[in-house]
């Protein structure tokens, strides 16, 4: 089966949970009218499902390939990317000034989800380009912006992020690539970068590499990293393409999944030096990178949600088609396996986690828009703190659950799931990179503990918890068994999260290792409690609509049932995470390294 | 790195937890002296790590292949299997009368673990042969035993199980393959069987297919299935190979993992009929199949443990070698990532789950030996009930956790884990079949609920829980923080399991679907509580040894720390499972099929 965009759920989340009306009322976001948003989503859904989704299987069976420094992408990708660019999809969230549509992040987010559901490998190229645009918007000079932005936003050129080196993965302090000033304002770069997504391909005329490197006199560690633009083809003063730059793809990786996305090893400067331009100031490269990494991390979180949605759709479709065994409570012949209770449980688990993660991510996107555009500085500051707290959760939690959801999707298919022709296995393989790249879950958890929780003494976390508590009060007051049941589990989850926040802030000075031993459980705990919070809000909104008698009754009933499933099957893990975090550090750290 | 058999942990479990001395004292098990067992394990470890393990990667890169009905296995497999046969490894647990070593299942179990750790794809061939031997021992005629057993036990021939058909996966009632009596005592079989592991290969001279089929007048459903022996080559009266039988491999599957293991589509009777002999009586085929399925399910559970062990070893090795980032509490240069708390947490999680599952499985194997050989009928009956209760848990829980452990293994490797050359990805792909074949986790859970819990009104489950409670009392009484902490969590786990057993037995009549909606959570809950029980027993035994001052002090300390990790990081999930089972059925079943 093909991909069908879950527009009804997306619209529900945009309108009922993420406050699209409020975002559309922000200065600079006025174009995001309900009509425009609806048209954009409809058209994007059509493009993604009709043009991009059918290429997903091809990418797995006929991966992008390397020969003599050139990368040939999967058949169909080049044409699809040109159609993507021509339709203006690369520009949805980018400035009108440079040819974009200037829509808020909240509107771009479902578009990103749809593109990734359709084809994770394909979507990586626009995602990296988004990151490049973001970095140039933030730290690029006016001249750099004028040279590059319009061409990146139109999709004529694409972008990459060059951080990792063989000895420098999660630890960027170990980056060795060096940059030598040439006296004319340019630098020559020398070094090897690995794991460069779309570092070489045939889908666009030029590739704009953003490269972390070190100047000769730079301080050691991450404080000595600078950020450079190194285009594949140099750009003449008139904007036309000049000489081939000295950056070459020496190989691409043989990966378990996302095989259509070429993962390049790039060699800079083997033939005299790759010419680059400094972005912003020397030694501030990591700071600029972080700006774009926040956006990229959010986007990878969206990949997790997108993949989970696609895996869910496939499994649900199979479960309705596959006839096997009788109904437990009936005596007639064999029935579709969706009537088996455990298949139902698996599908509900996939669905509930996907919907919760979607809701949390869209609400986070709205906070970003408000933080950028709101007239009131106090509101901007609050929403920015909310956004910053959420980014590692959206990235870490959504991608971890995508692995679980894709794995469950294989299980729903039984033996057929293990056969490659069926297609469920591709999601399982593709998903596995998501909790790793753009910062592993542990890196996200370190960020959540260090910069996002400890730095303000837990204030942001506690402010969010107060909002969760307000929702539990509303749920408890509702005249509905389901809403009350959701409220009870959410309250228990909030207790667990509060205990974890107290433990983290209270012990970081005395025993930093004990706190970090529970960092990933803390991230996952925050994910399920805050995802559960959104599902609680969703259930309240659905109950209001049912009471009003407006809209699609069965959709709202399903939303309440799904929220209740999340509350009774996912949220109860909160207490287990609390125990791990608060009581479990000693046993994490008890062994010596040589005892493993 | 290569595989190193965890002999120290195996010996600890055999001796301290599974009662090897008591098993060795059973009538018929006298050969299992400590010296013999030690020699068998040492030699098996050497064979598996030196001969079989190096072929594991090859099997993934150069899968078995099909051409014109013939299957060529991965280079090296044929020779390794001949060496395996010549060394007598196929016969470890089979009767001396037919050339086996006649050792108890408890001794065969670590051998099976080692072979599967070394090479899951390779080990499948002996595993299926074990099943064939088991079925013939149970239900074959004396003549059938004399024709086949010695040759299967020597490894000259191999065996298969033919259950699945395109329309009959988990639901064997749908089997259509038919058998027509020829009047001479033989039958002709016609039909298609799929997913037949080692259904065709080049490693042995003959392949003995055991096939479920229907005679013309058989009742509908599973009560009309009979079991037939259909050899690839007919066997002459003198035991020599006769004509090629009409069973042909028309293709093998393109799978996500265990690629060296050929998964055949077998066509029976396309050229006049495949000649088969009935095993036992007509229409009792499923009953015979169940006998061998119990053994096969246990063996697949061992595959889960074996794969988890291998994935753990690889991840631990990588974590000790990979230098990245500073020690959180130190100020020196970058250190091996094993010093990062979250890497430590991941490794402990892999290790603790693997050790717990191993302990539970070996204890289960011992129960099987006692149930077969003990002089006292009452003891035999009790141990048989214990074994029967445990088999679906060993199968379902150990395989589900193997997927989690293999996934965590990829995560420990970071970006390298996603690159196929690293090898961690193979375990992730291979593991995914384990919760599916030989009965999905849901099928195991149905068995656990229906035949193993409800049928005796929860008596066996409660008897086991009483043993768990006895261990919690011992732990609570120990003068050790660690043992007391383990006891506290185990007691909470036992409470949760007891609530689940009460729910299952109390509601099966009133609401069968509600009970089965929680069947897999019940299986997983039983897994962690009973695995945690074994880890509690292990901690008590280790503490005794430490007090005695005997043996390897650091091993015992590590065992207590690992047991405590299990108690504080895995056992706390018990309460969440309890909630799912006892409170969560409504939301599993709330939606209509068309709402998915």
UniProtKB/TrEMBL annotation, chains A, B:
Q: Which InterPro entries match?
A: Acyl-CoA_dh-like_C_dom, Acyl-CoA_Oxase/DH_mid-dom, Acyl-CoA_Oxase/DH_mid-dom_sf, AcylCo_DH-like_C, AcylCo_DH/oxidase_C, AcylCoA_DH/ox_N, AcylCoA_DH/ox_N_sf, AcylCoA_DH/oxidase_NM_dom_sf
Domain Acetyl-CoA dehydrogenase-like C-terminal: from-to ranges:
466-592
Cofactors required: FAD
The entry lists its GO molecular-function terms as:
flavin adenine dinucleotide binding; oxidoreductase activity, acting on the CH-CH group of donors
Q: Which Gene3D superfamilies match?
A: Acyl-CoA dehydrogenase/oxidase, N-terminal domain, Butyryl-CoA Dehydrogenase, subunit A, domain 2, Butyryl-CoA Dehydrogenase, subunit A, domain 3
Q: Which UniProt keywords apply?
A: FAD, Flavoprotein, Oxidoreductase
Q: List the catalysed reactions.
A: 3-(methylsulfanyl)propanoyl-CoA + oxidized [electron-transfer flavoprotein] + H(+) = 3-(methylsulfanyl)acryloyl-CoA + reduced [electron-transfer flavoprotein]
Q: Does the keyword Flavoprotein apply?
A: yes
Per the entry, what this protein does is: Involved in the assimilation of dimethylsulphoniopropionate (DMSP), an important compound in the fixation of carbon in marine phytoplankton, by mediating the conversion of 3-(methylthio)propanoyl-CoA (MMPA-CoA) to 3-(methylthio)acryloyl-CoA (MTA-CoA).
Q: What is this protein called?
A: 3-methylmercaptopropionyl-CoA dehydrogenase
């Amino acid at each position: 089966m093909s991909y069908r965009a879950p527009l009804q759920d997306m619209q529900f989340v945009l309108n009922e949970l993420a406050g699209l009306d409020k975002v559309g009322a922000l200065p600079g976001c006025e174009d995001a009218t309900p009509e425009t948003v609806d048209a954009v989503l409809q058209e994007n859904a059509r493009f993604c499902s009709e043009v991009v989704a059918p290429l997903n299987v091809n990418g797995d069976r006929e991966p992008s390939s390397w020969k003599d420094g050139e990368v040939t992408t999967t058949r169909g990708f080049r044409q699809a990317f040109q159609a993507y660019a021509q339709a203006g999809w690369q520009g949805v969230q980018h400035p009108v000034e440079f040819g974009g549509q200037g829509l808020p992040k909240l509107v771009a987010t479902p578009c990103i989800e749809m593109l990734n559901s359709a084809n994770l490998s394909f979507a990586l190229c626009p995602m990296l380009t988004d990151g490049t645009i973001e970095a140039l918007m933030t730290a690029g000079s006016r001249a750099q912006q004028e040279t590059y932005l319009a061409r990146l936003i139109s999709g004529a050129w694409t972008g990459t992020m060059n951080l990792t080196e063989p000895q420098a993965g999660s630890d960027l302090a170990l980056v060795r690539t060096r940059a030598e000033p040439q006296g004319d304002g340019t630098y020559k770069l020398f070094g090897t970068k690995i794991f460069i997504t779309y570092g070489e391909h045939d889908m666009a005329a030029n590739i704009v590499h953003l490269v972390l490197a070190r100047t000769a006199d730079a301080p050691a560690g991450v404080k000595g990293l600078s950020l450079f633009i190194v285009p594949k083809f140099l750009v003449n003063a008139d904007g036309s393409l000049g000489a081939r730059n000295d950056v070459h793809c020496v190989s691409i990786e043989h990966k378990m999944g996302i095989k259509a996305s070429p993962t390049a090893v790039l060699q800079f400067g083997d033939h005299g030096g790759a010419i680059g331009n400094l972005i912003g100031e020397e030694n501030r490269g990591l700071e600029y990178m972080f700006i774009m990494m926040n956006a990229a991390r959010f986007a990878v979180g969206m990949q997790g949600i997108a993949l989970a949605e696609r895996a869910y759709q496939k499994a649900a479709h199979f479960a309705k088609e596959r006839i096997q065994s009788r109904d437990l409570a009936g005596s007639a012949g064999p029935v579709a396996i969706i009537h088996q209770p455990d298949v139902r449980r698996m599908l509900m688990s996939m669905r509930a986690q996907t919907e919760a993660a979607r809701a949390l991510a869209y609400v986070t996107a709205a906070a970003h828009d408000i933080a950028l555009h709101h007239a009131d500085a106090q509101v901007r500051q609050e929403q920015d703190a909310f956004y910053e707290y959420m980014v590692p959760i959206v990235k870490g939690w959504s991608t971890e659950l995508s692995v679980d959801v894709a794995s469950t999707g294989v299980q729903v298919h039984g033996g057929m799931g293990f056969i490659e022709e069926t297609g469920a296995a591709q999601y399982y393989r593709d998903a596995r990179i998501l909790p790793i790249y753009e910062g592993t879950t542990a890196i996200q958890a370190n960020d959540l503990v260090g910069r996002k929780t400890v730095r303000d003494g837990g204030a942001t976390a506690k402010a969010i918890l107060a909002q969760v508590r307000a929702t539990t009060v509303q749920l408890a007051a509702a005249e509905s068994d389901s809403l009350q049941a959701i409220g009870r589990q959410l309250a228990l989850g909030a207790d667990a999260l509060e205990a974890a926040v107290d433990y983290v802030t209270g012990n970081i000075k005395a025993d930093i290792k004990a706190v970090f031993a529970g960092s990933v459980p803390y991230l996952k705990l925050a994910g399920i409690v805050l995802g559960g919070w959104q599902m609680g809000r969703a259930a309240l909104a659905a109950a209001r609509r049912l009471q009003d008698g407006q809209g699609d009754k069965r959709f709202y009933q399903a939303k309440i049932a799904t929220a209740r499933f999340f509350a009774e099957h996912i949220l109860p893990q909160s207490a287990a995470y609390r125990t791990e975090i608060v009581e479990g550090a000693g046993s994490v750290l008890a062994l010596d390294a040589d005892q493993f």
